[in-house]
Amino acid sequence: MAEGKPKIQSGVWRTIKPFVNGGASGMLATCVIQPIDMVKVRIQLGQGSAVQVTKNMLANEGFGSFYKGLSAGLLRQATYTTARLGSFRVLTNKAVEANDGKPLPLLQKAAIGLTAGAIGASVGSPADLALIRMQADATLPAAQRRNYKNAFHALYRIIADEGVLALWKGAGPTVVRAMSLNMGMLASYDQSIELFRDSLGFGEVSTVLGASAVSGFFASACSLPFDYVKTQIQKMQPDATGKYPYTGSLDCVMKTLKSGGPFKFYTGFPVYCVRIAPHVMVKLYDVDILESNSEGRTGSGLIEIRIIGNVICTKGINLWRDYERKAAATNRAETAPQTPAKMVNGPDAAASNS
């Protein structure tokens, strides 16, 4: 008898549920998409095409380099996505109540998406800064590398070396990028759900996956120019005289337009779209599954596939990391006799560079 009754949720859980679901789905999606995000950042830093970057990373740094900065990525999702998706759902529910339960127009959804994006980016900007720096570190000369151990070490070093306010370096383009991404992603997602489900009569799984794909494309197209500027600002370092390449976001925009034209902002768009679209699809699908389970609704059979896929990915990553550690140990043993010769050249090279 009790099986037919819907679950009764407490007031506290009803309030925090959108935030918990949003953060959990974002962290799951990041574990899947992190390698593509790593390649995207390297392309934006001028390391070559997607194929070249992938080959160089595998040859020079190993498979584990694709997951460099994962701790910062997870921290970013735990702050940024939790606040972003949670506030979007709360604001949407409030707006629907004010609209007497009727579906919201696209313009109102876009406004809510912009607001939620700004809230999320303001909260998650420090973790985003740590992520960009950890991903870009290997592209810098050895003497300029920061060598952060993990996200929390990165945040500690930034505060110690540059001050607390440095945690929000590049926060301007980060907020604008999040607002544009959120508007493109969440507004188009809700609109696509209504189109596929109500107008075209798609099933539950087809509706969610189709709407997620549409949402991922619009999120990519709207946000990449701001993502490009954000990456340039967050990874920049002063030269020998202490001068930074850009004085701010606007200066970066003007110099980029002058040197490469407007299409320069869309550098790496195919990779960015491949990175954003699956991330959006996994994230929004996980949100749908989490909400279905928490509300006592039956989720689709794809949840079993997702769980098995996550287990397989985890096992594969662990096997690759074991292989890389063994290969690195073997390589060190084989090259040990050459170490003194390299050490002799080191100071000479450093002196000539200075």
From TrEMBL:
<feature type="repeat" description="Solcar">
    <location>
        <begin position="13"/>
        <end position="94"/>
    </location>
</feature>
<feature type="repeat" description="Solcar">
    <location>
        <begin position="203"/>
        <end position="293"/>
    </location>
</feature>
<dbReference type="InterPro" id="IPR023395">
    <property type="entry name" value="MCP_dom_sf"/>
</dbReference>
<keyword id="KW-0812">Transmembrane</keyword>
<keyword id="KW-1133">Transmembrane helix</keyword>
<keyword id="KW-0496">Mitochondrion</keyword>
<feature type="region of interest" description="Disordered">
    <location>
        <begin position="330"/>
        <end position="354"/>
    </location>
</feature>
<keyword id="KW-0472">Membrane</keyword>
<dbReference type="GO" id="GO:0005743">
    <property type="term" value="C:mitochondrial inner membrane"/>
</dbReference>
<keyword id="KW-0677">Repeat</keyword>
<protein>
    <submittedName>
        <fullName>Mitochondrial 2-oxoglutarate malate carrier</fullName>
    </submittedName>
</protein>
<feature type="repeat" description="Solcar">
    <location>
        <begin position="104"/>
        <end position="195"/>
    </location>
</feature>
<comment type="similarity">
    <text>Belongs to the mitochondrial carrier (TC 2.A.29) family.</text>
</comment>
<keyword id="KW-0999">Mitochondrion inner membrane</keyword>
<dbReference type="Pfam" id="PF00153">
    <property type="entry name" value="Mito_carr"/>
</dbReference>
<keyword id="KW-0813">Transport</keyword>
<dbReference type="InterPro" id="IPR018108">
    <property type="entry name" value="MCP_transmembrane"/>
</dbReference>
<dbReference type="InterPro" id="IPR050391">
    <property type="entry name" value="Mito_Metabolite_Transporter"/>
</dbReference>
